Amino acid sequence: MKITDVRAIQPIGKDSPSDWRTTLGQILVAIDTDAGLTGYGVGGGGLSGIHVVKTVLRDLLIGRNPEKIPQLWNEMYQATLAFGRKGIAVMAISGVDLALWDLSGKSQKLPIVSLMGGNPGEKIPTYHTVWDFQDLSSVAEHAGFKLHLGKVAAPDQQEIMISAIEQARSLIGTGRLLMVDAWMKWNVDSTIAISKEIATFNIEWIEEPLSPDDLSGYETLKEESAVPIAGGEHEFTAAAFRPLIQQKLHSVLQPDVCWCGGLTELIKIYKMATAAELRVCPHRGAEIWALHAIAALDPNPLAETGRPWMTWVEGQPSIENGMIELSDQPGFGLTFDEHKLKLIH
């Protein structure tokens, strides 16, 4: 089997937000082969990511065997090294890598989870992200909830945040998980102070309180935060996760498989984290792209709900009573009608 074409487009779904999550957050990559199979993957980078696919990655892949995924990943990384390593170039590679994995599953007539040694059909608990504690009253089916405080994260809003977290715990009761997302807007002092105030509410983790570049700050939080720290959503490649894991700067690692380099890199991150006895909880894990890895590799599976505006992804399993499970369809088990997709130009 050989690759005959590599294509990338940017679909837009219903109610897609008018910010970077739409313009840069997702692209659809399709890889065609001479065997009549097409593999699909979702990456990122918007029109810039598409440019990387069309001008660099496509030329590298045409005529190649798509089943040599690790070799192709390394070659794509080297081809973008001068302008890549992180960000848009790796987000583009992510989509290509996932499409290669989809092809591998389809060619072997197996779901991706089976290629990694797992089984389809196992039920995985989910947690839901909300932007206002009042939204918790209508989503009680999930195993847990993450309160996103990115809109009220200024230093003079600490009391507002603490009050919101307290009310969130009151609304969901004591039997469900509760997490807090600071979206890189806190600092070391405010994180320590808030963690001490909210520890009594049994918080599973504080997510990304600092910039991903502030490793020394995370080193301090590792020792002084009263609540475990999570992060990695905005980090790229297993190489960049290595110091986070070796120094145990995060208790919970949250790679986004559509951004961090694809399934090839997510598997490496899982292996390193497992050896270090750290937890992995992929960003948007209930989306099909990471769900296969969670089902196959995670001893304590928990999947975050995905992007509701990704309505153009057909075949994504639904969440029933707070649980989600994979089908036994080959590859990722998705279908795309490319002719009906509404595109961003």
How would you characterize this protein structure?
There is one protein chain. The protein is an alpha/beta fold and 345 residues long. The protein folds into two domains: 3-109, Enolase-like, N-terminal domain (Enolase-like, domain 1); 115-324, TIM Barrel (Alpha-Beta Barrel), CATH 3.20.20.120. The protein is 36% helix and 14% strand. The strands form two sheets. Strands 4, 5, 6, 7, 8, 9, 10, 11 and 12 form a nine-stranded mixed β-sheet that branches. Strands 1-2-3 form a three-stranded antiparallel β-sheet. Strand 5 (144-148), helix 6 (158-172) and strand 6 (177-181) form a beta-alpha-beta unit. Helix 2 (46-61) crosses helix 3, helix 9 runs parallel beside helix 10 and helix 10 runs parallel beside helix 11 (288-297). The longest helix is centred in the first third of the chain and has 21 residues, at 88-108. The protein is globular, with a radius of gyration of 20 Å.
Short description:
This is L-rhamnonate dehydratase. The chain has 345 residues and is an alpha/beta fold. It has 2 domains: 3-109, Enolase-like, N-terminal domain (Enolase-like, domain 1, 2-Layer Sandwich); 115-324, Alpha-Beta Barrel (TIM Barrel).
What is the CATH C-level name of the largest domain?
A: Alpha Beta
Q: Supply Rg.
A: 20 Å
Q: Stretches where pLDDT falls below 50 for ≥5 residues?
A: none
Please count the beta strands (DSSP E, at least 2 residues each).
12
- Going by helix content, strand content and strand pairing, the class is alpha/beta
